[in-house]
Design a protein that fits this description.
Shape: elongated
Bound molecules: L-homoserine
Largest sheet: 10 strands, mixed
Length: about 425
């Protein structure tokens, strides 16, 4: 019997309790031990819980109890999670977390602490909810040089965009529905402004390339500026708009990493990931493309990943897993997105004499039209060139009287159509 503690009894925490209590046989078969939830830390009272007698409001009960060998952190946020997790690791307890904010900000530090104390720090549920992605990236794809990872990493924004695309729902209405259904984070800006996806691509980049990438280093844009006109133009072009987190290793060893809405061509599998689902495409030099797909959020999918990590901790008590990255990124490890060539979708209001200049300014453009294109609205895809050059040209266009309303990058992959 292995004693564990669970810090936090919100959506994910209560899901972890539910999964552990309802899957005893399967857990025993895989862990070769029974799990006993010795403590649940929460400020609130849960008198109706089947484990009502295990609740505590005092973290010291957990950290000072030598019989507890695995602690689950599902409180979310940086504080007090960071302090609690650090103290548990220092006390020789393995820690499992679903907290992407914590791993993205403090992962290298916590992994080093875990190594120092000979315990595990596992976080499968921090990216992609119930989708196995951390373990496959660390183990199954370990013989590859990862070339690129592109993912739909936030279920809420994907749900909103799907509603806009498929049902013509306005952004604000789709967001209200996502909140009503409980998909959105407490603060919806973490979802709609791209911060949640940013934390997740930072975790994947750190793991895949070995040096910690911090959220502050990543150019991040959300979806709140997108309109129904933009999703219609994407369809007319032959794809869909998705919020994509992308990291790519450049030839000089630096990383091109960003989170932003992208035009994803229909030929790319990511364009078919709809609703609250997540999809992560990993490209390795030996394996080529591998797509991970499933429920990226929600109580039981996330709890399933947390419980599997607990089982892994139990199985690796004496020989901790080697899941690690360093905090040693060289200066300029993350390249400016403005230096990298892209194509942009551009939509704006342009008098005729201005739109006539677009071709001269950008070269070969692809003009887009929908059934409802208003008069003097122009939408086009630029040729590929360093983003800085494109932005300069757009500024020039604005000086001649164009009002640019939206720009969206096109997801292009070297040497491939998608
Ligand atoms: N709000 C997040 C999402 C939850 O919608 O994907 C999982 O991180």
């Amino acid at each position: 019997m292995v004693n564990i503690a669970i810090m936090g009894h919100g959506v994910v925490g209560s899901g972890v309790v539910e999964v552990i209590l309802s899957h005893k046989e399967s857990i025993l078969r895989h862990a070769h031990e029974e799990l006993n939830i010795q403590y649940i830390l929460d400020r609130r009272e849960f008198p109706d819980s089947p484990l009502a007698d295990r609740f505590t409001k005092n973290f010291e009960d957990i950290v000072t109890d030598d019989s507890v060998s695995v602690v689950v952190e599902v409180m979310g946020g940086l504080h007090p999670a960071f302090d609690f997790v650090s103290r548990c690791l220092c006390a020789g307890k393995s820690v499992v977390t679903s907290n992407k904010e914590l791993v993205a900000a403090k992962g290298a530090e916590l992994l080093a602490l875990a190594r120092e104390h000979g315990v595990n720090f596992l976080f499968e549920a921090s990216v992609g909810g119930g989708i196995p992605i951390i373990r496959p990236l660390d183990q199954c794809l370990a013989a590859n040089n990862v070339l690129e990872i592109s993912g739909i990493l936030n279920g809420t924004t994907n749900f909103i965009l799907s509603k806009m695309i498929d049902e013509g729902m306005e952004f604000a209405d789709a967001l209200a529905l996502a909140q009503k259904l409980g998909y959105a984070e407490r603060d919806p800006s973490a979802d709609v402004d791209g911060h949640d996806a940013c934390r997740k691509i930072c975790i994947l980049a750190s793991l895949a390339f070995g040096s910690h990438v911090y959220p502050e280093q990543v150019h991040t844009e959300g979806i709140s500026g997108l309109t129904l006109a933009d999703v219609d133009y994407a369809r007319a072009w032959g794809g869909e708009i998705k919020l994509v987190g992308r990291v790519k290793k450049l030839e000089d060893g630096s990383l091109y990493i960003l989170v932003c809405p992208m035009f994803v061509p229909e030929s790319n599998q990511l364009s078919h990931i709809d609703g609250v689902f997540n999809g992560v495409m990993v490209t390795g030099d030996a394996v080529d493309d591998v797509l991970f797909y499933g429920q990226g959020a929600g109580k039981l999918p996330t709890a399933s990943a947390v419980a599997a990590d607990v089982i892994d901790c139990v199985k690796h008590t004496h020989a901790p897993k080697y899941l690690f990255w360093e905090d040693n990124a060289p200066k300029n490890y993350v390249t400016s997105h403005l230096d990298v060539p892209v194509s942009l979708y551009v939509r704006g209001h342009m008098p005729d004499e201005v739109s006539e200049q677009i071709g001269d300014l950008f070269g070969e453009i692809c003009l887009l039209a929908t059934e409802d294109t208003p008069e003097q609205e122009v939408a086009f895809i630029t040729p590929r060139m360093p983003e800085r050059e494109l932005r300069d040209k757009l500024a020039e266009l604005e000086q001649t009287g164009a009002q640019i309303q939206t720009t969206v990058r096109v997801l292009e992959r070297d040497g491939r159509s998608a």
